[in-house]
Write a structure and sequence with these properties.
This protein is mainly α. It contains 18 helices and three strands. It has a three-stranded antiparallel β-sheet. Keywords: Coiled coil.
Length: 587
C-alpha cells in the first residue's frame, strides 16, 4: 500500500462486499487498541475511506481539505455536499482555478459520506480525547476561531492537516482491524470498488454542471425519481438538533460569508447525524458516537421510536404496492398463457382439418392414377390384338385417360392448392392476432409498473413490425412531463410549493390535464397529490380571505410549523386540515 493511486500489481478482484467488510469493524468500534486507533482516529479513518469511495479523491487532495472547501447545497431538493479542490491541471488558468466533486446521502448508512463527515466533526466538538479534553470549545467560537480554515482530517493539532505517515499508519491499523494484511492489499483499488462500472468522471470545473447521474449511481440510485431514503422522512426535534454544534443556533450578524456557509454545513450535517444515528445506535452500540449522552437521552429515544413507526408504516405500504404489482403481472401472464393455449388449439384444429382434406385429395389422385394405369394397360392389350374394332376402342380409352388427367389438373391439384392457401391464411391471421395480443399485454404490464416505479424507457428492437413511429422532440418532452411525479424530497413548505406549482405549470404548458397525468401514475400519486393540494388550497384561500399575497401566508405558516418543540411536518399539517382542525396563523 502506498500513497500512489496507480499501483496495478495487486491481482485481487474486489467487490462491494469486501469494502463493507472493511468498514463494518470501524463502525462497530470493538476490541480497538486505543494507543493505535483511538476514537477520533477511528472516525477520521472512516472519513478518509469514504472520501475515496464516494468522491474518488486522492490521498493528497484529502489531506489538504479544509472545512471551508465543503459546500452544502441542494440539487433537485436533495441534500448534497460539494467538495472544492485546486485544479492542478490548470495552474495558469484563473478561470478554472478549482474543480468540484459532489455526493448525495447514500442508501446505506455505512457507505454514506455525509454521515462519515458528520460523526467525525461531532467527535471533535463533543467527544473528549483520552485526556478528557475537547478539541473545540464554545470559547473557540466566541474568540472567532476561523473554522473555515480548519483541516477536515486533523493532524497533530486542530489547525494542522494529517500527514502522509499518520494517514498511512491509520489505514494500516484499520486494515488489521478487519483481519487484512496491508502488504497483500491495494487499498485504493479496494476503496473505489463499486457495484456498477462508472465510466463518466465525477469531477467538474463548474459547480452547476456536476454529473448528477454518476452521483446518484454512487449513492445507490438510478434517478432522482428513484432517490428515496426512508430515514430522511422524519424531522428531528429542534431541541435535539440544538444540542449538536450549539454555537450555530444563533446567527451572528457580524460573521463572514465563509462562516455563514460553515453554519449551513453544520446544520445540514447535524440533521443527517440525528436521522442516521437511529440506525447506527441500534446496529453499533459500541460506536463512540452511539455512547455519547446526546444519543442516549430520552429526547433521542422518543425520536427513534417515532422514526421506527414511520418507516415501519412506509415499508408496509411499499411492500403492499410491490405485492399488488407482482399479482397484476402474474394475472397478466396467466391470461397471456391462456390465450396462447387457445390459439395453439385453433392452429392444431386447422392443421388437422388441412391434413384430413389433403388426404382426401391424395386418395382421389391415387384413384385417378390407378384408372389411368388401367386405361394404359387396355390400350396395350388392344394394340397387341390388332382387332378391326380396335380404333374406336383406342379412341374411347384415350378420351377416358384425357378426362382423368384433366380431373387431376383442374380439380384435384387445384383443391390441394386451395387447401394450402386457406391454411396459410388462417395461420397468418392467428399469428397477427397473437403478436397484437403480445404487444397489448406488454403495454398493459408496463403501464402497471410505471404506476409504481418510473423507469427510463428501454429501446425496442428496430426489426419488429409493430414498432411505433419515432417521437418528435416536442412529443418526447411532453412524455417526460407526463411521467414526472411530485418530489418526495421536497420536505419544507417552500420546496413543496415550488415543486407542486412547477409541475402544475409544466402540465399547463404541454396541454396535459390532471386526469391524463393521473392515469399514468395511478392511485398512489393521486393520494399524494391530494395531500399536497390540501395545503396549497389552504394557503390560497387564506391569502384570498386576508386579501394579501400568498408569500405572506406561506411565511406565516412556515414560521408556525418551525417554532415548536417538535416542528410540524407537511403530513401533520395536511392531517389537521383534513380533520377540519383550524390552523390559526396569528397566535
Amino acid at each position: 500500500m502506498s500513497d500512489s493511486e496507480d499501483s496495478s500489481i495487486d491481482i485481487n478482484e474486489y467487490s462491494i462486499r469486501d469494502y463493507y467488510k472493511l468498514l463494518r469493524p470501524l463502525w462497530a468500534a470493538k476490541n480497538i487498541n486505543a494507543s493505535y486507533l483511538n476514537n477520533h482516529k477511528l472516525l477520521r479513518t472512516l472519513v478518509d475511506f469514504s472520501l475515496t469511495h464516494s468522491l474518488y479523491l486522492k490521498n493528497l487532495q484529502k489531506r489538504e481539505l479544509e472545512l471551508g472547501d465543503i459546500i452544502p447545497t441542494k440539487i433537485n431538493y436533495v441534500d448534497a455536499l460539494v467538495i472544492k479542490t485546486p485544479n492542478n491541471n490548470s495552474l495558469n488558468n484563473t478561470e478554472h482555478a478549482y474543480q468540484y466533486y459532489g455526493c448525495f446521502r447514500n442508501k446505506f448508512v455505512e457507505f454514506c459520506p455525509h454521515l462519515a463527515i458528520a460523526v467525525y466533526l461531532f467527535s471533535r466538538f463533543h467527544i473528549p480525547d483520552e485526556y478528557g479534553s475537547l478539541e473545540f470549545m464554545v470559547s473557540d467560537y466566541k474568540n472567532k476561531l476561523s473554522l473555515e480554515d480548519v483541516k477536515l482530517l486533523k493532524g497533530n493539532n486542530k489547525l494542522s492537516a494529517i500527514s502522509y505517515s499518520q494517514q498511512h499508519k491509520s489505514s494500516i491499523n484499520a486494515l488489521s482491524l478487519s483481519g487484512l494484511n496491508y502488504k497483500d492489499i491495494n487499498l485504493n483499488k479496494l476503496l473505489v470498488t463499486q457495484t456498477l462500472d462508472i465510466q463518466e468522471k465525477l469531477v467538474s470545473l463548474d459547480i452547476d454542471h456536476l454529473p448528477h447521474s454518476v452521483m446518484l449511481s454512487l449513492a445507490g440510485f438510478e434517478s432522482f425519481t428513484d432517490y428515496n431514503i426512508a430515514r430522511n422522512s422524519v424531522e428531528p426535534p429542534q431541541e435535539l438538533l440544538e444540542q449538536i454544534f450549539p454555537f450555530i443556533n444563533k446567527p451572528n450578524p457580524e460573521e463572514s460569508l465563509a462562516m455563514t456557509r460553515i453554519r449551513q454545513l453544520l446544520m445540514m450535517l447535524r440533521r443527517t447525524l440525528c436521522q442516521d444515528m437511529v440506525i447506527i445506535k441500534k446496529k453499533y452500540p459500541s460506536n463512540p458516537v452511539s455512547r455519547n449522552p446526546i444519543f442516549s437521552s430520552e429526547l433521542f429515544t422518543n425520536f427513534c421510536n417515532e422514526e421506527y413507526d414511520q418507516n415501519s408504516s412506509d415499508n408496509k405500504v411499499d411492500l403492499q404496492k410491490i405485492i399488488e404489482i407482482q399479482n397484476s403481472k402474474i394475472k397478466n401472464l396467466e391470461e397471456q398463457l391462456g390465450n396462447y393455449y387457445s390459439e395453439q388449439r385453433v392452429i392444431f384444429s386447422n392443421l388437422s382439418d388441412f391434413i384430413e382434406r389433403q388426404n382426401e385429395v391424395f386418395q382421389r389422385q391415387s384413384e385417378y392414377m390407378q384408372k389411368i394405369q388401367n386405361s394404359t394397360n387396355g390400350l396395350l392389350v388392344l394394340l397387341s390384338t390388332r382387332n378391326k374394332n380396335m380404333i374406336p376402342l383406342v379412341q374411347q380409352s384415350l378420351s377416358e385417360t384425357s378426362e382423368f388427367i384433366s380431373s387431376i389438373n383442374n380439380t384435384n391439384i387445384k383443391q390441394g392448392l386451395n387447401n394450402s392457401i386457406e391454411l396459410l391464411a388462417k395461420l397468418n391471421s392467428n399469428t397477427h392476432s397473437q403478436q397484437q395480443h403480445i404487444v397489448s399485454i406488454t403495454n398493459n404490464t408496463q403501464s402497471i409498473i410505471n404506476q409504481s416505479i418510473v423507469q427510463p424507457p428501454s429501446e425496442r428492437p428496430s426489426s419488429t413490425p409493430f414498432q411505433p413511429p419515432p417521437l418528435t422532440p416536442k412529443q418526447i418532452e411532453r412524455q417526460t412531463v407526463l411521467r414526472r411525479r411530485l418530489s418526495r424530497q421536497a420536505t419544507t413548505l417552500f420546496e413543496m410549493w415550488d415543486d407542486f406549482k412547477g409541475l402544475e405549470q409544466e402540465l399547463k404548458d404541454h396541454e396535459i390535464t390532471v386526469t391524463e397525468w393521473l392515469k399514468v401514475h395511478g392511485s398512489s400519486e393521486r393520494q399524494f397529490r391530494h395531500t399536497r393540494l390540501k395545503i396549497i388550497k389552504f394557503i390560497e384561500d387564506e391569502a384570498a380571505r386576508r386579501n394579501c399575497p400568498v408569500e405572506f401566508v406561506k411565511e406565516k405558516l412556515h414560521t408556525k410549523m418551525r417554532n415548536r418543540v417538535r416542528p410540524w411536518t407537511l403530513d401533520e399539517v395536511q392531517r389537521m386540515l383534513t380533520s377540519g382542525k383550524r390552523i390559526d396563523l396569528d397566535d
